[in-house]
Amino acid sequence: MSHFEASRTAHGGEGKDPLEDAVHLWFVHPEGWKGDEAQARLLSLLSPAERERWEAFRFSRDRLLYLTAHGMLRCVLSRYGGLSPRQWRFVTNRYGRPEIVAAQNRRSLRFNLSHTAGLAVCLVNRVFDAGVDVERNDRLDDPLSIAERYFSPLEVRDLRRRPRKEHRERFFTLWTLKEAYIKARGMGLSIPLHHFSFEIDDRIGISFDPALRDDPSRWHFEVFHPTPHHTLACALGRGPLPVPRIERFLFTPAEVAKVGGEIF
Q1: Domain locations in the chain?
Q2: How many angstroms separate the Cα of 215 from the Cα of each of 43, 116, 178, 194, 227?
Q3: Which of 86, 115, 121, 171 has the CB geometry, 3.0–4.6 Å to 27, for a possible disulfide?
């Protein structure tokens, strides 16, 4: 597991694709976007359907989280994909996973978005089946009871043998890993969470129920703690390729102004 440190820029060297041998993980703190001008600029980037959904949120904190997550996604994609943030269009697969429409995706961009109270994250690459999940980790009183409903027997045993004070941290590590995996597969909760298991020691390993027909050796996982109150996991289906670097970047109002100056 790693501490979370943000890099300064997402640009590679001259003529080099920054996603050539890396996966980029962007994150945004909604609390840093409370100014009306910054929010208005992000809102101007959303599609009519996205604005309608934004307006439907009852609470201002939920509207702000949605706005910063989806505004970040559009700006981040424009760093790598050659379109302005307003131009991106999305479709969903049969399981509800959003993807860039094929006509706009000649550069083979792949992304995955996750958000929870206080944080949103976006994982971008060109090569790998990739998923990311982030969760607020300080708001659960009885993690073992939830694990007994959804986790594999192996994972439940792992939790039970630990001191009670360790249950919450271990639960969120496992939960985010499981969510990241099913998102990387693009199949969501159509994959039962108890049909695969994580084992964590000096590395993170995965095993599968035979019904899933997946190969553990093709997967790489990482867990981060971007704040003391959040747990984040990434799943990368790399196949025979080398393990990529996961480079991390902070999305701020200054960042969107920089992007705006370059490609709007």
Answers
A1: 29-111+248-264, 128-243
A2: 42, 30, 15, 17, 32
A3: 121
Give 243's DSSP letter. Answer: P
Strand, helix or coil for residue 88? coil
Report the C-alpha gap between 136 and 234 in whole angstroms: 16
- What's the one-letter identity of residue 20? E
Are 30 and 65 spatial neighbours (Cβ–Cβ below 8 Å)? yes
CATH fold for the domain made of 128-243: Ribosomal Protein L22; Chain A (3.90.470)
Residue 220, Cβ density class (10 Å: 0-12 exposed, 13-18 middle, ≥19 buried): buried
Amino acid identity, position 89: R
Give the model's pLDDT for residue 207.
97
Q: Hey, is 74 helix, strand or coil?
A: helix
Over residues 26-45, mean pLDDT: 93
**What's the full length of the chain, in residues?**
264
Question: Is the full-model pTM beyond 0.90?
Answer: yes
Amino acid sitting at position 186? G
Identity of the amino acid at 75: C
Q: Which of 70, 83, 65, 82 is nearest to 111 (CA)?
A: 70
Beta-strand pair 245-250/90-92: unpaired
Q: Which CATH superfamily is domain 29-111+248-264 in?
A: 4'-phosphopantetheinyl transferase domain (3.90.470.20)
